[in-house]
Amino acid sequence: MTGTESFENPVSELHHALRATRRRTVVSLLTNSEEATIPVRSLAREIAAEEHSIPTAAASGEPYRNVYNALSQTHLPTLSSTGVIIYDPKRQKISAGPNLTVAYIIIEMTRPTVTLLFDQPEQRMGEQIMTD
To answer: What are the residue boundaries of the DUF7344 domain, all occurrences included (predicted)?
Structure first.
């Protein structure tokens, strides 16, 4: 294995882990939190509130349960396996893993590209619409 291959594999794994919007949101919430450990319940409420454009306190019921289950069963184990977070499934809490900062940097570095491609439809994929 060359030095490049050993570098590319973890970076590729991080990119793969960060494909899901909910995982990127977990990284952002944990990075910007003043708390060292965050309960999964709190993450689920924050994400459900964001997805449904409602106050965090109103995030409950089916939307909350769907997010909570997806986090517990899929998203948090994936982030944990790549070292982005430390996930304690028994206590249902997360904390920063050794790759959290790298994951956050990847998210922030790709944000301008995503914004350009999806938030400015008139300039998508290098296509320019001429205006009169």
So the answer is: 15-94
